Amino acid sequence: MVATTITTSKNDNEVSPETLKSEYDRASEVKAFDETKAGVKGLVDAGVTQIPRIFHRLPNEQFHESSVPEGDPRFSIPVIDLIGVSDDSVRRKEIVERVREASETWGFFQIVNHGIPLSVMKEMKEGVRRFFEQDTKVKKQFYTRDAKKSMAYNSNFDLYRAPSTNWRDSFSCRLAPDAPNPQDLPEVCRDILLEYSKQVMKLGVLLFELLSEALGLNPNHLNEMDCTEGLVTVGHYYPGCPQPELTMGTSQHTDGGFLTVVQQDHIGGLQVLYNNRWIDIRYEPGALVVNIGDLLQLITNDRFKSGEHRVLANRIGPRISIANFFLTSFLPTKKLYGPIKELLSEDNPPKYKETTVRDYIAFFNDKGLDGTSALPHFKI
């Protein structure tokens, strides 16, 4: 799915790239920000009232919040109840049909009764909070841009490539197929990271079964393609922003992996682009957000859609979210992924070249969150 560019009329908050270039040295300011190793939270702790220019959103990034009337069912992502999914065949068929419809249209859905205890979800959210709110000296030990590290904390993975910097800090942790050495993980969230990853992996296996069935394939098809082999958990921390109208929490993008499972908190701000409108993904207590990634769109030959989404900045904070990415880009595997042959026909020829997960994610990361999709680059 090619990214949709929405243009808006210029206003006082929008700054052209030419003006940005002439008025300040972005590269130097980005480097100076990075070298503090304190992230966006460091700016907030220092009491900034005006956000640095590097955070100003792009001129063509539509800011306004969802204009859809609250409660309009036509513009609410599906909430799918997984109760009975493993022991009631009739119920499972209903769930598979809802998963199929959501994956083909929205690329997003929420799930409830998913099996992960509320206590585990709550502790994971608190673990992320503890990490970012611990003493900066302790936190800085994990600050790195070395992609080989199994645990890495920084602000904006694409800081040196993206055209604008997002108002958030993150840590990422590789948790499967090889569990990290516990001593390499932050003490404040070590135990919950390991427990949460086990729970999410179990859920991921089920989700890929449902997605396989939604494609008319054997339930084990996607799991046997190793879609659940790799898991990376990312903890996002979005501090309250003094000028949220000038920046983004996360710029418009699609996810590069196969599937993403997200826990968001009550503050909200996550939006999906649907029929050319930004739709709020409302917080549902106990629910998890599931979204299709680029690689799943690629192997389903555009049957499932990798939904474009973003996160608005907010005066209220911190907003905390945990994103779990099913992908294997950090593994040395040379396995090729292309459109699944069982889904192809004369009327539905392959639309994408075969690629390794590593090559796809490398292109995705090099491009950064620039408001466009990486998928067109891999089209035949």
From TrEMBL:
It comes from the Eukaryota. Pfam families: 2OG-FeII_Oxy, DIOX_N. Residues 227-329 form the Fe2OG dioxygenase domain. Signal peptide: none annotated. Residues 1-16 have a biased composition (Polar residues). Residues 1-20 are annotated as: Disordered. Keywords: Iron, Metal-binding, Oxidoreductase. Belongs to the iron/ascorbate-dependent oxidoreductase family. This is 1-aminocyclopropane-1-carboxylate oxidase homolog 1-like. It comes from Ziziphus jujuba. The lineage of its organism: Eukaryota, Viridiplantae, Streptophyta, Embryophyta, Tracheophyta.
